[in-house]
Amino acid sequence: MTKRNIEKLLTRCITDNKENIYRLAYSYVKNKEDALDIVQESIYKALTSIGLLKNPESVKSWLFRIVVNTSLDFLRKHKRVQLVDEEALEFYSSGVEDVYPDIDLERTLEELPLKYRNVIVLRYFEDLKIEEVAEILNENVNTVKTRLYQALQLLRVTLMEESSKEMN
Q1: Which of 96, 114, 141 lies at the terminal end of a domain, its last residue?
Q2: Could you tell me the keywords of this UniProt record (predicted)?
Q3: Domain boundary at 96, 112, 145, which?
Q4: Does 143 lie in the same domain as 70?
Q5: What pTM was estimated for this model as a whole?
């Protein structure tokens, strides 16, 4: 496959998955502007390193890996400081009742170690196959399966503990 054809394949992949790419970046940084910056930087990295793509059939997982790594680099550089965006600030300051039924799940996910959160986000929020998750995270398929199982166990235990506290 020629470099030009691979570039077209990458461009189509970016276009077809733009919402997923943004959502993936946002799941790490929790800020619109930072997520957009990560998406932009990831696309730039993908376009400038297109020659490193060994298998054109795996362009999607290659691109997602770039987004994950760029997100993790961003978090490292900014020491995981999470700024609250304007909408969230307005929402919390307005005294409005919480309308998110899954807020416990979101909070519990945030508390998970990164290696577990990564597999949950990619598998369930991005709806990727375990093999794709393994490729994106550059891990063995069995490692991903084990982490997924452990992450679900941790989530289950934590959510059950929280619900039992609420009942008392």
Answers
A1: 96
A2: Sigma factor, Transcription, Transcription regulation
A3: 96
A4: no
A5: 0.67
Q: What residues have CB less than 8 Å from 29, skipping those under 6 apart?
A: 35, 38, 71, 74, 75, 82
Per-residue pLDDT of the chain (168 residues; tens, 9 = 90+): 787 888 899 899 999 999 999 999 998 888 899 999 999 999 999 999 988 888 888 889 899 999 999 998 898 888 654 444 455 445 444 444 444 455 667 777 788 888 888 898 888 888 888 998 898 888 999 999 999 999 999 888 887 877 777 665
Instruction: Show the tokens assigned to 154.
Output: 């941790």
Residues with Cβ within 8 Å of 20's Cβ and at least 6 positions away in sequence, in order, are 64, 126
Q: Do 19 and 47 share a domain, yes or no?
A: yes
Q: What's the number of domains the chain is made of?
A: 2
